[in-house]
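User: Could you walk me through two proteins back to back? I'd like the raw sequence and the structure tokens for each, with a short line separating them so I can tell where one ends and the next begins.

Assistant: Of course. Protein one, sequence then structure:
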Amino acid sequence: MMYWGYGMGAWPMAFMTLLNLLFWALVIVGVVMLVRHFDRRTPPSDAAGPGPGGGRPLPHQILDERFARGEIEEDEYLRRRQVLDGQPAYPSRR
């Protein structure tokens, strides 16, 4: 059976097409937002470290580790620690 002018016109068909495209765009955006949300909740493996938020270590931590390993002497450690704390450093006794 053929329809001669009694079927759906051009404007309702265009409106339904736009609604269909809008629906699928919203579905895709929703999926992308969910993936980003759950991806953000898991920390990246390369950023797991002793610093704040799993990033790089703080300068105080690096200084403490160097002193603990014996890389720097006590007077050097104390002088650098004062500089990091914002205090004027006393001159080295060497």
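----
Protein two, same layout:
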Amino acid sequence: MKKLFIAASILLCSFSAQAAQDPEAVFTRSCGACHNGQLPMAPKKGDAAAWEPRLKQGMPTLVKHVTEGFNAMPPRGICMDCTAEDYQAVIEWMSK
């Protein structure tokens, strides 16, 4: 029984490290309002030059900026049900 519990715990932990939501869906629902060009300081999806200096800060910093809010970005980037993994997936998707 103990081995089964440990195996189940490991399996659940491995699932929790992945984004639960589709990055494109999150972008459309929450991020696109600013990152489609309506807000000049928000880097547009696919704008490699705009994303490069941000990505150099490291993913933990970018996820922190989204979670806490940064400059004109509101806390949680208007995605109240996103996890850190969801934010990372959306950042990676937008920066490509």
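The chain has one domain: 20-94.

Let me know if you want the two compared in more detail.
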